[in-house]
Amino acid sequence: MPVSASGSGIGSVVRLDAATGQVQWSVKADVLDSESPAVVGDVVIVLGSGGKGFQAFDLGTGKVRWSVPSATVLRRLVVDGGRAYAVTAGGTVTAVDTGRGAKLWSVAAPESDDGYPMLRAAGGKVYVQGRAQNPDMQFHAFVTSLDGATGRGTDQSPLSGPCETRGLIVAPVAAKRVFLCHRENGSGVLNGDPEKGAAWDIPYGGNALSPLSAAEGKVYFLAASLSGEPAFTELNQESGGSQWRVPLPKVCAEPDRPETANAVVVTDGLAYVRCGAEGRVIDLAEHETVLKFTVPVRPEGPAGFLVAGGVVFAPSESGWASVEPQPL
Fold first, then answer.
1. DSSP 254-300
2. For the Pyrrolo-quinoline quinone repeat domain, which residue ranges apply (predicted)?
3. 257: which of 5, 60, 71, 136 lies 20 to 30 Å off by Cα?
């Protein structure tokens, strides 16, 4: 049941059949194509451009269910349970009830990163990435936890350095919920444990080539070795090295390509890795590449894609394309 938004300004929201790739419905909408839609129950939620705020469509028909406007542009859509959250460039977080389409609260997170701080939601809380400057002009990073129902601040957990803007994740690692993000220079992972109020740094050799992905207590990402060879790797959460590495095409590490040209989807024990038009499917248990795929490339926009039922869906200039991965 892949659902996607495309276009910047007047674009469209589309639902595709996971088995056939056929369009089930498509509606025109004033949406941001940099934001992925979220499905909660029987509604699809997107963020609109300008002051359109939150918009919800019926999952079955595509008809508008409700909208919650915003005075300023919202980004970083996340959902948890029956609530959706987004944030302004200045760090004000807004929550809405996804069933009623009603605004619950708006709260300015303390000292949040400028330029749409990263949000994550889990366990009834919404987490806001932030950083502040010390008297010695150095930055310290932290994550503020807000109660999802009220917006009240519950605690603030440190990180051992500034995060890359590409991503904060809240991952259940070792049966605990921890914060993970790439270190700002791209050569390490910052961890923060909200229960202990502790932070630690996991360095690794080479450079990160994608955001982090977490599944079943493990952390994955694309990285280049010190010699520049790209690979998909599982992070060793103690040493910072690789538990294992699977080589990837050299296009994944071309220096003139933006990191947003690489994307990873982890599902059903497999990692689907896209670097531009080229894709690989990696078996996470066997640590080997098992399938490959090729997808269209848009001149503009990130390389995000969807996976459902083992089929890869990717946006193209003429709409959405469905691709079945093939043996190597």
1. -TTS-GGGEEEEEETTEEEEEETTEEEEEETTTTEEEEEEE----SS
2. 11-184
3. 5
